[in-house]
Every structure is written in structure tokens, then in C-alpha cells.
Write a structure and sequence with these properties.
A hairpin with a 4-residue loop joins β4 (205-206) and β5. The strands form five sheets. The protein has a four-stranded antiparallel beta sheet with strand order 10-9-12-13, with no helix packed on it. It has a three-stranded antiparallel beta sheet with strand order 7-8-11, with no helix packed on it. Strands 1-6 form a two-stranded antiparallel sheet. The chain has helices at residues 28-45, 65-80, 84-96, 111-114, 116-126, 132-145, 157-173, 176-192, 235-251, 259-276, 303-318, 324-342, 375-391, and strands at residues 25-26, 53-55, 58-60, 205-206, 211-212, 394-395, 411-416, 419-426, 431-437, 443-450, 455-462, 469-476, 479-486. By secondary structure, the protein is of the alpha+beta class. α1 (28-45) runs antiparallel to α13, α5 runs parallel beside α7 (157-173) and α11 runs parallel beside α13 (375-391).
Length: 487
């Protein structure tokens, strides 16, 4: 007998949580409320985890890539805020499918059919006695390792669907073969899958622009259909790659081979995305063409790509890959736009572009339009929610501490592995005082350094016991500076 799970929504009025989309505030309680509203709506709409989908006249089982992305998001948020209902919903799904990714002929190497393996492995990591949860997906990937073929990911969506699985297995099995093959396949897609055909010898990643063509059909001479002088960089396609890189870095040890390549690409994409963010906080379906909304009936916001960018960017901030002073305003503005504009009063997630491969597919994209598959958009939102919940409560508005004006010589401040690294160019021997305040203005840490040389000085201060958003005030002689930092 099939089990049905109906999770009733919290008695929360989302309108009572309203903040403006360009707000500089992030509230963990509001993040939780919006996330639960969206997820509860989805679980109530799809209570039977075993049910097939019927889209476009075709029946598909509930372990296809769209549902796999949903469970990726669900497990990501579960790690931050575990609830029995969500775990039961996920494990019931996995048990029904016997933790098998695909049984179809010729599908074993296809990333779309491997995608659900990410959630299977997440649930294995929750209970490593349940080895059945990793057995099939491991056998599928191991079979790939026995060949020299590295050209499977010929469209960039595939990077998100499958690449993190290699990172998961590499860490679980402590086997560098997974990491090396992952790198080979990623670099082939990055550098070789463009041109006039698959493996046409040209890159899909444009290093100059910091963005990706979706596949060989969309690199030049293909251009945006609205702004014909602009390249076609599809938002969700770039979101898949961006979040895949974040997930690979999350699952891999810091010593993983080729980490520098992933970080460099992630940072290059981050800068490109920062430049093309819309003023309302969203990203357009076509990243390089702001007037192309995909359809005349679409006002412009798009949820799935925006959520993937939020997920990746927030992760980059939290682990110190991205400068919080630069990227926090982007990510908070985007998250508040998702919550205030995309999430409807009943928890329905609006402005999700349907399945496709370019800006004009899956249209129109509107507040109340239902995409062909509802699940993957919710999964993207949950991936973002997990990272935003991790960031906690943040206030980027001016406070009384901020009234100290920066004067004279300035400092460069970075966070690396729970160490505050301060660099300052000095013209003489000067003492440096560091005071860290919480957002209520209380002093939580301070340290005094003595500079003994002229030129560039570097000071390290442990912040191991701190987590969240703080204000860091540095003074040296007649110079002072206040910076907001995320630890």
C-alpha cells in the first residue's frame, strides 16, 4: 500500500514578514518561515512520493532529474534544520526506488539519470550503516571509471546533475580516482564541448565574460534572440554550473586536487553574476541581455536561476571564497526578492521558468504560472534557503558603530579558516588595535598588535569561537576603518 504524507503549513502570515526586496536585512526566522511555507506547500501538493509525473504526454517516474534536484535541496536544508517529516518524506522516496538511480537501457552514464544519487548519498551520510543507499550509484560511477570516456557532460546542466556525485564518492570512499575523473570530465565540458558539434574543440566557458554557453548549439554564431549583439547565456544553465562548483567544494576536502581551478572559475562567475544582477534583486533569464525576459508576457523575474546563484554565492561568502563586503548585498537583495516576490501567500513558488535549454523555453514566467515540473524550482529554492539560513541574522544598515569614518591609511581584511587576516601598508612603527563587535554593538573580541616595520604588515587574529555577522574596527595612529565581516 502506498504511503501518503501530508505536511500542513505553519500558521504563519507571510505578509507579516514583509521586508522590501532591496532590504539590507537578513533574518534567520524569516528565512525559516518562507522555506517551510514553500516546502510544506510542495509536500502537501505532492504527498505521494511514489507517484509518476505526466508532462507533455509522457509518464516519468519520481526519480527523474527534476525530482532529484528537489531532494538535493531538501537534504541541504535538512542539514541546517532537521525535521522528522522531511527525512521521512525523503527516505520513503528512496526506499520505494530501492535506492536505484536508473534501470533503463543506455541511461547509466547519462547525468540526468544519475542526479537522484546525490540525495541518496546525502541520506547515506546521515546513517552510514545503510550501505544500500550508496551501492547502486557507486556501481554506476565505478563502471564509468573503467573506461577512458570523459565526454558525457555535453550540456552544462549535466555538471550539476552528476559532478557533485564524484565529489561525494571521493570523500566517502577516500578514493582519489573519483576526484581525478571529475576534473577530467569538467575540463572537457569547459574547454572542448563547444563549436559546431559535441566535442567540437571550443570552450563552453567564456573566460572573458565569466559565463557559460548552455551547449554547442548556443555558442557563437548563436546570439540572444532579443538583443542580437549579445551572447546567449541562459540563467539557469549558468546556475547549474555555479551551484555544482559550490557543492563540489562543499563535499571535497580542502586538499582536493584541482581545487584552485574550481575556485578560480567560481570567483570568475561570481564577478560576472554580480555585474548582471537586476535592480530588483533577481537575475534575468538571459544574463547578457537585460531586455530579454523570454516572452512578452513575462515581467522579468526568474526564480530558479536566481535561487541557484543565491545558493552558490552565499556558500562562497560563508567559507571565505568570496568577499562578504562585496557579495553580501547582492545575495541578501536576491534572497529577499525571492521571498517577497516569488513566494506567494499560500507557499506556491512563482516565477519559475519551465524545463528547457534557453531563455525562450518554459514561458511565460509569471507570479502564478505553474511550470511543467514544479519540483526542481522548489529544490533550487531550498538549496538557497539552506545557505541563507546558515548565514543567520545580518544587518547591513548603518549602525552607531559605523559612524566612525575611515581616515588615513586603510586596511585589507580577509577571513581564512577561522583566522582574521589584516594587511596594512604603514610608513612607520605603529600599534594596530582590532575590536570586533556583534550587531548589537557589544565587544566580542579585541587584540593589540605592534608593527615593527615600514611597508606591508600582516596580522593574524583567531576568530574560532565566532560565527555570524560582525563589525570589525581597526585603528592605527590617526587611521581607522570599520568593515562588516562574515565568520
Amino acid at each position: 500500500m502506498k504511503k501518503l504524507y501530508l505536511i500542513f503549513s505553519m500558521a504563519v502570515s507571510l505578509s507579516a514578514l514583509a521586508t522590501t526586496p532591496d532590504s539590507v536585512h537578513l533574518s534567520r526566522s524569516q528565512t525559516l518561515a518562507y522555506t517551510q511555507a514553500v516546502n510544506n506547500y510542495f509536500m502537501a501538493t505532492y504527498p505521494d512520493v511514489t507517484a509518476n509525473s505526466h508532462v507533455g504526454g509522457k509518464e516519468r517516474n519520481s526519480r527523474i532529474w527534476t525530482r532529484g534536484v528537489y531532494y538535493e535541496g531538501l537534504m541541504a536544508f535538512y542539514r541546517q534544520y532537521p525535521t522528522p517529516q522531511c527525512l521521512t518524506y525523503a527516505t520513503t522516496w528512496g526506499n520505494f526506488h530501492n535506492w536505484i538511480t536508473t534501470s533503463g537501457s543506455g541511461q547509466a552514464r547519462h547525468a540526468d539519470y544519475q542526479c537522484c544519487g546525490q540525495a541518496y548519498l546525502d541520506m547515506y551520510l546521515l546513517d552510514t550503516t545503510q550501505t544500500v543507499r550508496k551501492t547502486h550509484i557507486k556501481s554506476i560511477i565505478n563502471a564509468m571509471l573503467t573506461t577512458n570516456q570523459i565526454d558525457d557532460w555535453y550540456w552544462i546542466d549535466a555538471i550539476q546533475m552528476a559532478m557533485p556525485i564524484f565529489a561525494q564518492l571521493g570523500s566517502i570512499e577516500k578514493d582519489n580516482r573519483y576526484f581525478e575523473r571529475m576534473y577530467q570530465m569538467y575540463m572537457h565540458t569547459r574547454n572542448q564541448h563547444g563549436g559546431s558539434r559535441k566535442s567540437g574543440g571550443l570552450p563552453l566557458f567564456n573566460e572573458t565574460d565569466g559565463l557559460w554557453y548552455r551547449d554547442y548549439q548556443f555558442d557563437p554564431p548563436y546570439y540572444d534572440l532579443t538583443e542580437s549583439n549579445k551572447p546567449c547565456y541562459w540563467s539557469r544553465g549558468n546556475g547549474w554550473v555555479y551551484e555544482a562548483l559550490a557543492r563540489v567544494l562543499y563535499y571535497s576536502p580542502d586538499t582536493v586536487s584541482h581545487r584552485a581551478q574550481y575556485v578560480a572559475d567560481f570567483r570568475k562567475m561570481s564577478e560576472a553574476l554580480r555585474r548582471c544582477q537586476r535592480t530588483d534583486g533577481f537575475w534575468n533569464v538571459s544574463l547578457a541581455a537585460p531586455t530579454n525576459t523570454g516572452n512578452a508576457a513575462s515581467p522579468g523575474p526568474e526564480t530558479s536561476g536566481t535561487a541557484l546563484f543565491v545558493a552558490g554565492m552565499a556558500y562562497g561568502i560563508s567559507v571565505g571564497i568570496l568577499d562578504s563586503a562585496v557579495y553580501l548585498p547582492c545575495v541578501i537583495r536576491a534572497w529577499n526578492a525571492l521571498c517577497q516576490t516569488a513566494v506567494q501567500a499560500n507557499g506556491f513558488l512563482g516565477y519559475v521558468q519551465g524545463s528547457g535549454s534557453k531563455p525562450e523555453d518554459g514561458q511565460p514566467v509569471q507570479a502564478t504560472s505553474t511550470p511543467d515540473f514544479e519540483d526542481f524550482g522548489v529544490g533550487c529554492f531550498l538549496l538557497a534557503a539552506a545557505e541563507m539560513y546558515k548565514l543567520g541574522d545580518i544587518d547591513l544598515s548603518v549602525t552607531k558603530i559605523d559612524k566612525t569614518q575611515s581616515t588615513g591609511e586603510l586596511f585589507d581584511i580577509r577571513i581564512n579558516n577561522k583566522n582574521l587576516i589584516i594587511k596594512q601598508k604603514q610608513t612607520g612603527n605603529k600599534a594596530v588595535n582590532v575590536i570586533i563587535y556583534n550587531m548589537n554593538g557589544a565587544v566580542v573580541a579585541k587584540k593589540h598588535f605592534n608593527s615593527n616595520k615600514t611597508g606591508l604588515n600582516s596580522f593574524n587574529m583567531s576568530v574560532e569561537n565566532l560565527a555570524g555577522c560582525y563589525l570589525c574596527k581597526l585603528t592605527s595612529g590617526g587611521s581607522s576603518q570599520v568593515r562588516k565581516i562574515i565568520i
